[in-house]
Amino acid sequence: MSQNYKSALIFIFVTLLVYGNTFFNGWTFDDLGIVTDPASMSFNALLQLESFDRALRFLTHIPEYKLFGLNPIAYRPQQLFWHAANGFLLYQIIKKFGVAEYTAIFSTLLFLIHPLQTESVASIGHRKELLAMFFILSSFLAYLNALQNQGKIKYILLSVSLFTFVIALSANLTILTFPVILICYELLMVSKNSRVLTRNIPVLCTVTLAALFLLTYHWRDFFSYSPRLLIYSQNLFFENYQYYPLFWGVIKAFGIYVSHIFFPLNLTPEYTLKFSNEFFPISAIPGLICLLLLIYIPFHFRQKNRLLAFSAVWFIAFYLPVSNFVPAGYIVADRYMYVCLPAFSLAIGALNRSVSKQQKYGFIILIILAGLTIRQNAFWKNPETLWEHAVSVCPTSTGAHILLADTYLKNGKFSDAKTSAQTAKSLNPFLPYPYYILGMLALRENNFSEAREKLQYFIINGKTSAPDKYNEAIRILQKLGAPQ
Questions:
Q1: Which of the 8 DSSP states describes residue 123?
Q2: Is it the case that residue 35 has pLDDT exceeding 70?
Q3: Residues near 160 by Cβ (< 8 Å), separated by ≥ 6?
Q4: I need a surface site. Which of 18, 221, 345, 471 has the fewest CB within 10 A?
Q5: What dihedral do alpha carbons 397, 392, 321, 171 form, nearest 10°?
Q6: Is the pLDDT of residue 222 over 90?
Q7: Which residue, among 441, 115, 160, has the nearest Cα to 262 in the 3D structure?
Q8: Comparing 32 with 289, which gets the higher pLDDT?
């Protein structure tokens, strides 16, 4: 039996062992409304998507839906397959850098079982991260093999690398910085005569500037005021809507990511960050030190330890699109680390290329991480367990309280729903959805005047946030005889 075959079996076994309890989980978080919407489960719906981004995710869901309907257990095997396959591809890449077998397997297992991976693996709706990673690793592996070949085979492999990169973009556009990784790889580790992308620097600079211009134009809306305001609102910051609080917030968030990599405790799908009105908040110093150190590594180790330098480049390149320096999404999200974490595995390989003399300590680390991940998977069992955990970890998250209130309402726990909705309303009185929940609860208690008041507020402010609930609220108010 070849070593590759043995390693593949190890990765499959460990993935099943650590994530096997996700087979008992139901639909949660982004699964609801994305995967569970029958209208999106057809090829016609796929062709009508407004964006190329995320198309591959829907394409992989369609066969599961056609064969098994909306039974969540049927969607789990593919989820675990992609994750284990990513581990195998990462292992192949690490081996190409001359890392010893034990260290390569250990580094790969760190990627596979790290608790930060739970959100991407346990949530079917976040399969996009798994798919993007698979095709990015495939692209990189084809590129590495191309550099080792000549003639027709070299150009075939380069074509495969380009094709798989395009496929990866159809899963998640946040991996668009991958060409930067290839350019840095050539500059760090490839002799001038063997380079492909950096052989002609003037052409490279021209293409890079053109790409930056097109990307800036395409995502010009992210540079406007609204995305920044949304992030501030999610994090209960209303004192200053300038850019510098966001900048320091991103720096603080980077420190959180680093702490979660080394100490993966209290992980949750919803985080809030305390923004500061200070021009230079002291609380951002740990994150600033970590970020500057990461930037320093490629320059300092470009000759001493090129693989370590390259691992830092990998992390930086894939972190930037999700960092929110240009506001685009959640200020902190575990799933954002999925494509970044291979850098951690590469760094382990760079620091310990030979067979480790401390294998027992590595085994202990893996056991601890596996236990934490299995525990984290259990929180994703259903929406109630997930959001109860989220509010216990992050009690200031309005999003977690709203989703918990909505879950309680659907589960018939009306008193708990009212408490959670009131908590969300007290944290941020401008959010419309808590008013919808409170209005529905008041209607159930035959308190029609309060129901009218709450639902009218929701109708005025909540049309874009929840269109289906908006139409329902309209119908209810019509029955109650309230003015629209």
A1: -
A2: yes
A3: 138, 139, 142
A4: 221
A5: -110
A6: no
A7: 115
A8: 289
What pLDDT score does 217 carry?
65
State how far the Cα of 184 lies from the Cα of 198, in Å rounded to an integer. Answer: 9
Provide the Cα torsion 400, 406, 410, 412; round to 10°: 90
Contact 269, 334 (CB under 8 A): yes
Structure tokens at 322: 């999700």
Residue with the larger pLDDT of the pair 478 and 20: 20
- The residue assigned the tokens 């320059």 is 299
Domain spans, the chain:
1-174+353-381, 383-480
C-alpha distances (whole Å) from 290 to each of 285, 295, 379, 460, 476 are 9, 9, 30, 44, 53
Q: What is the spatial distance between Cα 328 and Cα 176, in angstroms, rounded to a whole number?
A: 15
Rounded to whole angstroms, how far apart are CA atoms 101 and 91?
9
**What CATH number matches the domain at 383-480, 1.10.10.10, 3.40.50.300, 2.10.25.10, 1.25.40.10?**
1.25.40.10
> What's this model's pTM, rounded to 2 decimal places?
0.92
Residue 145 is predicted with a pLDDT of 94
